[in-house]
Amino acid sequence: MPEESSTDKKKLRQTLIAARARLTTAEKTEGSEAICRHLREWMSTRRIQKVALYKSFRDEPSLAPLEAQCPAHQLFYPRIDAARKSMRFRQALEFEVNSFGIEEPTEEGPLLYPDTQTLMLVPGLAFDRMGHRLGYGAGFYDRFLSGFPGITIGVCFEAFHLPALPRDDHDIPVKYIVSEAGLWTVQTDMRSAPLAEATQKR
After folding, report:
1. pLDDT at 202 > cutoff 70
2. Residue 63 to residues 12, 25, 77: CA-CA distances in angstroms?
3. pLDDT at 5
4. Are 158 and 61 contacting, i.e. CB atoms less than 8 angstroms apart?
5. Quick check: pTM over 0.70?
């Protein structure tokens, strides 16, 4: 990673973590409910059999309203292997808290074997209009997404859906972005027309 890009990401990461922490409980709750509503509407028009999602951490949008309406056998959560700097997704027979303070499934849960109809809901501090993500810097999602064959939707609050982010060649963009304002297909070229119309814009 170029030093300049690394520095830019670190500064922006600190700024966005602080900004998201300032959101009120009501803003986070209402935003999360709207995000899950947009996701349910989008999923209702597609044959999604498996969903890779996450447990909310550090003021991320909560997907609990969506979890409550999906069959448990469809849902898979990331389990981190810090020593190998990797993660795999498993069904959650039970949850435990890892060394990062994140809830993750225990090792007994069945593994996810993704295909082209597997949906992954990707958390991030921010996403830009081309689908690039700013995470916490560990690289777990970039490494996993490099071989992921399915559909990816970046999840963030609208205040963190930005025009552009610093990025590197190895960064993997998502295909869609959802916030409380709606769900969009990402732009593939910054010179293209404005974002595709949301499933529902509020």
Report:
1. no
2. 25, 15, 12
3. 61
4. no
5. yes
Domains in the chain (CATH in brackets) are: 3-185 (3.40.50.10420)
pLDDT at residue 2, rounded to an integer: 47
CA distance 118 to 139: 21
* 43 and 56 Cβ atoms separated by less than 8 Å: no
> Vertex 124, ends 119 and 129: CA angle to 5°?
85
DSSP letter, residue 111: B
Round to whole Å and give the CA distance between 159 and 175: 19
Element (H, E) at 142: helix 140-145
Per-residue model confidence as pLDDT tens digits over 159-178: 999 999 988 877 889 999 99
Q: Are 167 and 133 in contact (CB under 8 A)?
A: no
Strand pairing class (182-185; 176-179): antiparallel
| 143: its two tokens | 């490494």
